Amino acid sequence: MKLHFPIVLEQDEDNIFIASCPTFEGCHSYGKTVEEAMINIKEVIELCLEEQSIESYNQFVGFRELELEVT
């Protein structure tokens, strides 16, 4: 069985890539490259899968951007 998970990638002020999977609470990892961050988040997801049943996953709905005017 193949499962697909959404991954959110961000880059911090030190140019480190942070990968998060919103399907699981607290599922984050990082790497010096996007590829490294993806390998690392895969390992974290595999650990989360060992701890949680498929029925208890958060359902990813989508990504929205919110615009704020800051003065």
Automatic annotation (TrEMBL):
It comes from the Bacteria. SUPFAM superfamilies: TTHA1013/TTHA0281-like. Residues 5-51 form the HicB-like antitoxin of toxin-antitoxin system domain. Coiled coil: none annotated. PANTHER family: ANTITOXIN HICB. This is Type II toxin-antitoxin system HicB family antitoxin.
